[in-house]
User: Fold this.
Amino acid sequence: MAISLQAYFPKKTFRTLCIITLLGGLWATTACSSEADKLINRQSEVLQADPNNVTALVLRAEGFKEKNDNAKALIDLNRAIELAPESSRAYLLRSEVYFQDRAYENALNDADKALEINPELSKAYAIRGQARVSLEQNFAQALVDLDEAIKKG
Assistant:
């Protein structure tokens, strides 16, 4: 008998469970994919009406990232940054995608840019610290970044 755990969790909590796959197994994969598909489809409709909608580009990129379709996520994020170079959210998400793709130097650069725009982004400090560790450079600064991520957490 299949049950929907989504009914027992607030939407944000359920999405977080999907993203970090605490539920595991086929059910969580299907549920996450379904949520990502809905997000992608909704934002695609918005973009048909307004192809320059930066928020829709970033949200659709989040959906693509959740589905591990990082090539499509990067296309949307590059466009979003072209349209709104002051969007710390676009730089932060692109940094996450680069990190996922093991393009650590790019992840580091975008985390730097996101922090330049908004120095309160704890996730950007975390990605920057992890990228420094992955690049095996400046471990002392990596610890500072990771500590800052925890403080701002």
Summary: Helices lie at 11-20, 25-49, 54-66, 70-83, 88-100, 104-117, 122-134, 139-152. Residues 25-49 form the longest helix (25 residues). Residues 2 and 27 are 9 Å apart (CA to CA).
